[in-house]
Write a structure and sequence with these properties.
The complex is a heterodimer of chains A (137) and B (148). By secondary structure, chain A is mostly helical. Chain A is built from four helices and no strands. In chain A, α3 runs antiparallel to α4 (100-129). The longest helix of chain B has 29 residues, at 70-98. Chain B is built from five helices and no strands. The chains are: A mainly alpha (137), B mainly alpha (148). Chain A binds chain B through residues 1-12, 15, 48-49, 52-53, 55-60, 83, 86-87, 90-91, 94, 98-99, 101-102, 105-106, 108-109, 112-113, and chain B through 3, 5-18, 21, 53-54, 57-58, 61-66, 88-89, 91-92, 95-96, 98-99, 101, 103-105, 108-109.
């Protein structure tokens, strides 16, 4: 629906519906391969966009509060995993030209980050078991 | 900075609502970036990143008879990416402190953080140049004509 041809209520509801479908798709893909950094990133990006749209237009779409809370929680969990993925990648890059002492430090840090990532993945999996909430247009 | 909550009447034309939303989100970007040239505080830089991201999303939702703001959205994406690298460096530095790592590794991370900051600042300043990437956005909203 074109921005120029509708009222904001209908237009925003259409945008939200499309973004929910996209977020849902990326979350399903992430669930089918939870260790994929790319799928985590894709799901997080889709949720960030949806979150922003809901925040912008919550005044003209009914029933967004519960959905906002759920999307915020999922986005936060995915963020923890994403941070860990990025940090591990950065540490691998630093390792290539690291001194012996730095390598030991990188190994210890990587171990701690991987542990944090496992915990974040578990929490995300639990959160994804909770039934989803739909907004009322 | 928390995004300003907006109230729309459901029956309001979408075009008017989008115009108002983009104006407000751009004002938030300008407010967050007010002292970008001197800013080094990680939280404030992160707030600028989030404001840029919200504005980009608002622009990318447009589907219709509004000026083409694609170039502005692309520049916002570049700034967001650099500030994202900077944020990752800041978090990674915290991890080195948590793990009591000293020596050259924190210095290397800090150097990467500073490089990201310089690149983000250059992109920001260039965005406000005459006929620069933000020119259509400035014309559309009617404010924000310089990188302060």
């Amino acid at each position: 629906m074109s921005t120029g041809q509708s009222n904001v209520g209908d237009w925003a509801a259409g945008i939200v519906a499309g973004e929910i479908a996209r977020a849902d798709r990326t979350l399903r893909r992430q669930r089918s391969k939870p260790r994929s950094a790319k799928r985590v990133h894709d799901a997080r990006r889709a949720l960030a966009r949806l979150l922003s749209t809901l925040q912008d237009f919550q005044s003209c779409i009914n029933g967004t509060q519960q959905l906002l809370e759920r999307i915020t929680a999922l986005h936060k969990r995915l963020g923890r995993i994403r941070d860990a993925d990025v940090h591990l990648k950065r540490l691998r890059a630093y390792r290539k030209s690291a001194t012996r002492e730095e390598r030991l430090a990188i190994r210890e840090m990587s171990r701690a980050i991987r542990k944090r990532r496992r915990k974040a993945r578990r929490k995300l999996a639990i959160l994804l078991e909770i039934p989803r909430v739909e907004p009322v247009a | 900075m928390t995004p300003r909550a907006l109230t729309f009447d459901r029956r309001e034309p979408a075009l008017d609502a989008v115009r108002r939303l983009i104006g407000i989100r751009f004002a938030e970007v300008l407010e967050s970036g007010r002292s970008f040239g001197r800013e080094t505080d990680a939280e404030r830089l992160h707030a600028l990143r989030l404001a840029c991201k919200r504005l980009r999303f608002a622009i990318e939702r447009i589907n219709g008879p509004l000026p083409d703001l694609t170039v502005a959205a692309q520049r916002l994406a570049q700034i967001v990416a650099e500030l994202g690298n900077l944020h990752d460096s800041a978090l990674l530095l915290e991890r080195t402190h948590d793990a009591n790592v000293d020596g050259t590794l924190p210095a290397r991370i800090q150097a990467d953080r500073e490089r990201s900051l310089l690149r983000a600042r250059a992109l920001w300043v260039d965005a406000f140049a005459d006929a620069g990437p933000f020119a259509p956005l400035i014309a559309f909203t009617g404010f924000g004509g310089s990188a302060r």
